[in-house]
Amino acid sequence: MLSRPPASVNAALYLAAARLGYRRQFAYPASAFWGLVTNLFFGALRVAVLVALFGSRPQVAGFTMQDAITYTGLTQAFIAAFSLFGWYDFMRVIHRGEVGGDLLRPVNVLAFWAAQDAGRAAGQFVLRGLPMLGLFALLWGAGFPGGPQAGLTVLSVGLAWACGFAFRFLVNCAAFWSPDAVGIGRFAWAAMNLCCGFLMPLALFPGWFQSVLAWTPFPAMLNTTVELWLGQRIGPDAWAALGTQLAWTVALFALAAMVLARGLRRLELAGG
Question: What are the protein's UniProt keywords (predicted)?
């Protein structure tokens, strides 16, 4: 019987996967630069729309003009890091049969892919997220959290990525049952963008829709981070928001692990 590798070996493999995922993002700096330029262009358009929405009003749904500009900068900064426009990597691996290679590694498949994506997200945030935030601060005066709120916001960013990854991985597992699950993914990303607060702040939605969304994991994937960043949730309310993010993250990872196990049981691979 083959013995399981020690935990220290597994940890080293996950760290190596995260490191390679991070370094891979720097392979094409020109692509990252033009992606940043594109995000800045559309960010400027979104700022113009929000400025028109406010008009002469000092606040809209609890957002000041400065809050709205900071919100726009944040959501543009997290597009690549959180893969808000879609992520099909695991889906392609399943369809091509390359998932068999993952099964040969002495690691947990879900944890291995999470480590890779964590490195990818960190690399994208360094290349595109941080410059975007800096440009919004320089051009439009976007704000940054300070004091203890900054630490809570950093925790929220990590949980938002983790919750979003678990959801994306779960959607990708549809490839075990569908020969072409891209359509399922496109529908899922559209729903996520609407419900996580990327297209517009959730505070601008009707009250009944906000109540419905409160029972879903989508606000934990972005909107909670925005609210903490802007100081709309402080003290006990901020900790409650982080607890909700953590609960949804754990629940989605557990569901993704269960669906992955069922998918692998029906997986059939052929080839030499």
Answer: Membrane, Transmembrane, Transmembrane helix
**What's the full length of the chain, in residues?**
272
3: exposed, middle or buried (Cβ count in 10 Å: 0-12, 13-18, 19+)? exposed
Task: Name the E strands within the chain.
Answer: 59-60, 63-64
Q: Which residues contact 123 (CB under 8 A, 6 or more apart)?
A: 21, 22, 23, 24, 25, 26
Torsion angle in degrees (nearest 10) through CA of 253, 148, 72, 251: 10
Query: Distance between CA 130 and CA 13 in Å, rounded?
Result: 28
Residue 184 CB burial class (10 angstroms; 0-12, 13-18, ≥19): middle
Tokens linked to 96: 């091509």
Residue 254 and residue 238: Cα distance in Å, rounded? 25
pLDDT tens digits for 89-143? 999 998 888 888 888 888 899 999 999 999 999 999 999 999 999 999 999 988 8
pLDDT tens figures, 31-64: 889 999 999 999 999 998 888 887 777 887 788 8
How far apart (Å, rounded) are the C-alpha atoms in residues 47 and 201?
A: 13
Q: What digits encode the pLDDT tens for the residues 171-208?
A: 999 999 988 889 999 999 999 999 999 988 898 899 99
User: Tokens 């498949």 identify what position?
Assistant: 109
Q: Tokens for 17, please give them.
A: 């996967």
